[in-house]
Specification:
By secondary structure, the chain is an alpha/beta fold. It has a single domain, classed as P-loop containing nucleotide triphosphate hydrolases (Rossmann fold, 3-Layer(aba) Sandwich). About 40% of the residues lie in helices and about 25% in strands. Strands 6-7-8-3-9-10 form a six-stranded mixed beta sheet, sandwiched between helices. Strands 2-1-4-5 form a four-stranded antiparallel beta sheet, covered by helices on one side. Strand 7 (about 160), helix 6 (about 170-185) and strand 8 (about 190-195) form a beta-alpha-beta unit. Helix 3 (about 95-105) packs across helix 4, helix 3 (about 95-105) packs parallel to helix 5 and helix 4 (about 110-125) crosses helix 5. The chain is globular, with a radius of gyration of 18 Å. About 40% of the residues are buried. Bound molecules: adenosine-5'-diphosphate and magnesium ion. Adenosine-5'-diphosphate (ADP) binds near residues 34 and 37.
Length: about 240
């Protein structure tokens, strides 16, 4: 479904993503992990069209999408969440997701249909569908769910989930992981899931890629990642043997 090859992103003299290549099969959940600053969100921003690659290619269903505008990539079927949720504060929860549904359909659906898609997405992530709920006062867990609902409402075939566990407690993390698992299993949506911690992600994903300083240092099964010397060094600072 997705083929990333030799992907690079340079900010001035700094190489944030360095020759990253990977493939993604339809129906897969791929975990993309690595310490803070390792280039995970930048990789998402390149795939989703928020940033233009300095080099390399990104093919989605065989078509080159590197450098296309974010809205065009959304309309091709790639949805993404943002690490830092920024809802429209003057709109209700339901309206926030309705706007996303309307945008995802390129404005070609009725308001009623957009709202219907929004309600379905809110239900999927476990948020209230009532039109009177506001985003003010929503905690970290609810805001992360809102990010997911907004992305789902655009009806993606590929979902890029950036740090869905950030700021959550143990129980909330378990729930968020189940929601992602459900999105893949019940909706058949392919997922790339970014986290800086391994945690519950490792139980859910089919495969994991580890980034360090913008470079891919590991790709394989989660169980192998946990015992890989380079990965454990990055995560635990263990000396290489
Ligand atoms: N727009 C930008 N301009 C300059 N540097 C950036 C920009 N975006 C990210 N970076 C830098 O690129 C590196 C990777 O960032 P990021 O992809 O956000 O890391 P991660 O998501 O893995 O924590 C960091 O050193 C960050 O400071
Ligand atoms: Mg990030």
């Amino acid at each position: 479904m997705l083929a990333v090859e030799g992907l690079c992103k340079r900010f001035g003299g700094f190489l944030a993503v360095n020759e990253v290549s990977f493939d993604l099969r339809a129906g897969e959940i791929l975990g993309l992990i690595g310490p803070n600053g390792s280039g995970k969100s930048t990789t998402f921003n390149l795939i989703a069209g928020n940033l233009r690659p300095s080099a390399g290619s990104i093919r989605f269903d065989g078509r080159e999408i590197g450098g296309l505008a974010a809205h065009a990539i959304c309309h091709l079927g790639i949805g993404r969440t943002f690490q830092i949720p920024r809802p429209f504060r003057k709109l209700s929860l339901l309206e926030n997701v309705t706007v996303a549904a309307y945008h995802g359909a390129g404005g070609k659906i009725s308001r009623a249909e957009a709202q219907h898609r929004a309600e379905t997405a809110l239900e999927m992530v476990g948020l209230p569908v009532s039109s009177s709920v506001q985003t003010n006062g929503m905690g970290a867990a609810a805001l992360k769910k809102l990010e997911l609902a907004r992305a789902l409402a655009t009806k993606p075939r590929l979902l890029l989930a950036d740090e869905s566990l950030g700021g959550l407690d143990r129980e909330e993390m378990e729930h968020a992981a189940e929601v992602l698992d459900d999105i893949r299993n019940r909706l058949g949506i392919t997922i790339i899931w970014v986290e800086h911690i391994m945690g519950v992600l490792m139980r859910i994903v089919d495969r994991v890629i580890v980034l360090d300083h913008g470079e891919k240092i590991f790709e394989g099964k989660p169980a192998q990642a946990a015992v890989d010397p380079r990965v454990t060094e990055v995560y635990l600072g263990k000396a290489r043997t």
